[in-house]
Prior knowledge:
Blueprint: H1 9-23, E1 28-29, H2 31-38, H3 42-51, E2 58-60, E3 63-67, H4 68-77
Antiparallel strand pairs: 1-3, 2-3
Amino acid sequence: MASRGAPGAAQQLVSSAAPAASAISPQFLTTVEAAELLRLSPRTLEKQRVLGGGPQFRKFGARVVYAMVDLRAWADGNTFGMTSDPGYVQRESVR
């Protein structure tokens, strides 16, 4: 009978590596990922890139990405207590 390594050694190696991989959060998000984070449609972010008013974005070649810090800053900057707060402006729909 051939001897094997310690039972569960491979499983222990996999389970110890799994938390490290899942703990890494991406620094840059695609349009779809950023929209999911902000609970917006990707099309809304695309319109805001053209018309303004959205979060800062970056271009890496042809790829558009959003930095997590920029998304958080934009979300924090759009915090209001009521619709009559100074700075709260309803934009007209572009549809």
